[in-house]
Specification:
This protein has about 90 residues and is mainly α. It is built from three helices and no strands.
Amino acid sequence: MPAVHTFSLFAGMAVFIDFLLQITCFVSLLGLDIKRQEKNRLDILCCVRGADDGRGMQASEGCLFRFFRNSFSPLLLKDWMRPLVV
């Protein structure tokens, strides 16, 4: 069947390109994020420096982290939300 053959070629190419992106771009973006955290820059606005409270090199919690911890995660863990997500 030509349609299945063409689909499988495109799917295989997509998986290969995804693999290449995972081993190159994803790793380099993680490295850039580590540099951002070491310079105490915010997670959403990475050009803005966070408040220095004298704790040294410890990373402060960013706005995005607090949002996921305080709002998004508890919402996803509600009993009525689990079936909707699945």
